[in-house]
Amino acid sequence: MKIVSLLLLVICIGTGCSSQKKTDMTGTQIEYTAMSRGLYKRIVVQDQKVSVTNGRDTEAIVSEIDNAKWNKIVSEFEKINLDSLSALKAPTEKRFYDGAAIGNLKIIQNPKTYETAGFDNGFPPKEIEKLVNLLTDFAKE
Fold first, then answer.
1. How far is the CA of 33 from the CAs of 23, 62, 104, in angstroms?
2. pLDDT by residue (tens digit) across 71-83?
3. What number of CA atoms fall less than 13 Å from residue 13's CA on the CB side?
4. C-alpha span between 78 and 73 (Å, rounded)
5. Strand 49-53 relative to strand 40-46: parallel, antiparallel, unpaired?
6. Three-state DSSP class for 64?
7. 37-85, pLDDT tens digit by residue?
């Protein structure tokens, strides 16, 4: 009886841990753009690769994302409620008087597209702030 109980306990623990898998990001595209009259920045992350465009008429620079940074991106992505992305409120309004470029986060997952309303570049809503900061770090490298 003790052996059967121990065996069931091991099976329950094993299946419980396997249910805590990371989000499958295969095919998911995360795009951050920042635009104003004199600025154009586009950062696209997909399948552990990043594409950075720093100008309207410039070529994108594509590079691999190391596992540590990728895991941070996946971790922050998991915390976001995609359905409420369009309802997020910007903490500042400098973009209304050319005080900041307009930032935008778009996530394409399967056939659905989720997109934020415009916010000030550098001042994203707190719900997506860590993810946006991870993305903008690629443009600084």
1. 24, 16, 5
2. 999 999 999 999 9
3. 6
4. 9
5. antiparallel
6. strand
7. 989 999 999 999 999 999 998 999 999 999 999 999 999 999 999 999 9
